[in-house]
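Reopening this one. Same input as before:
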Amino acid sequence: MADAASRLRSVAEQVLGVPLPVRLRAWDGSQAGPPDAPAIVIRNRRALRYMLFKPGELGLARAWVAGDLDIEGDLYGALAHMSGLIWERGEDSRTLAQALRDPEVRAAVRELLRLAGPPLPPAPPREEMRRRGHLHTRRSDKQAISHHYDVGNDFYEMVLGPSMVYSCAYWEDGGTLETAQRDKLELVCRKLGLSPGQRLLDVGCGWGSMAIHAAREHGVSVVGVTLSQEQAVYARKRVADEGLTDRVEIRVQDYRDVRDGPYDAISSIGMAEHVGAAKYLEYARDLYALLKPGGRLLNHQIARRPQRDEEAYHVDRFIDAYVFPDGELAPVGTTVTQLERAGFEVRDVESIREHYALTLRRWVANLEADWARAVRLTTPGRARVWRLYMAASALAFERNRIGVNQVLAVRTPESGGSGLPLRARTWNP
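Same output, byte for byte:
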């Protein structure tokens, strides 16, 4: 099979309808494309079969996770080139079905079939989530959370650093990841107006960083809930090491089962993305019911851009299968509307989109710096999932494909007093 790279490049350009902006290197050693461009490496013909049997994002993801598809050179540069073809094509771009009406495209696909070898669908990599039952039941949510978070605390320590905070940091020029994560936790505490003696509920408490910071720095009592057993074990040890067991309780519990309100404040940091559009109003109402009158909610959540046709929106299939199963992103306006429908008064919305791009690039750097250990701690496929997901997400934040917002909302009492000062934005640490 001579010069597979040139043949693949021709096929790709026929199907896409545009020149391929990257170099291809195939399993036979052949190369095609700009010599100074990042290279997409097709290690074997199984990569083609993945893409043929699941065209689009999922086929590419399976080939990547299996190690059959790789990037040589600048990872971010290659993803930036490819994002225009895969994720950021205009709404007027032709679909695969439209492309297949072209006789030349059909001929190109037949050529791809010849290149791919035996017409047998390869099994998905074992890192892919296998779904059972309905979405966003207590059982399915626990399975989804376990898939993402019960990967191993040592792996997360390596990627996240000592802060063990798995959400967007809050940066200053020249700051470190640890400082930026501490500043984010402090920003949340200030927005919530925490003071000694108050009760805080931390929904989706992760490895306990927010709970520990709030108790240690602001003197509050904290209940943190998570669906991950591994997170809970780790968080409880951290709480004990800090000498805060009298003020911090970590539970393995669904937020829908919390019954010991009212709380003075609720923090939900990077958790609401798991809730799902169909359940979001229920989520907002549950948190509203857990707050005392005058209590505050800080909802820190990734948002997507609104679509021209919202009914045509679908989740990213790579992320859904390998990263955040059953997760859904909503535009920030939708989130604000749902919080208000639940009874909240939304008092402040702050976008910190660029901060997440900086955070993700630091996590990728941590992962790449100790790659061999990352593979030992998880699997080669899992490490590849995290590298691609975090690098592609960094670009998505930089290009304003997605954002992240902190929404401060109040359960305003009947008297109408929100409890916030007239000039409320004095909370930046």
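So the earlier flakiness isn't reproducible anymore. For the record, The mean pLDDT is 89.
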